[in-house]
């Protein structure tokens, strides 16, 4: 698909194709749905509700609703704030259980902490700027 190490060097346009779908991780991912619909009016959107346990930080799926043919589609996984990455890892596991290949999942995220690099998911398509401004994470994202 795409191969670039830095967003400064390579901004790759995404081609709108029939068969793409979005999956928002509730509740914050729903904020990205309108922007996706503005670009692709008839795109199908699924939802998944995942909550992390306060003590163990393990993610648990409470609800998942996807288009019935999601296994044939490219999936735009919407999670605007990536803290530890546990929620996205669990969401990808659920998508794989529904027949989606990890190579067709593209993570859409706006902000990430240094902990949210998603090491266990090397095949997930993502772009993270190499310089992470720590002042944003210190001010707005609190762990635990």
TrEMBL record:
SUPFAM superfamilies: PRTase-like (SSF53271). CDD domains: PRTases_typeI (cd06223). Residues 17-116 form the Phosphoribosyltransferase domain. It comes from the Eukaryota. Pfam families: UPRTase (PF14681). This is Phosphoribosyltransferase domain-containing protein. The lineage of its organism: Eukaryota, Metazoa, Chordata, Craniata, Vertebrata.
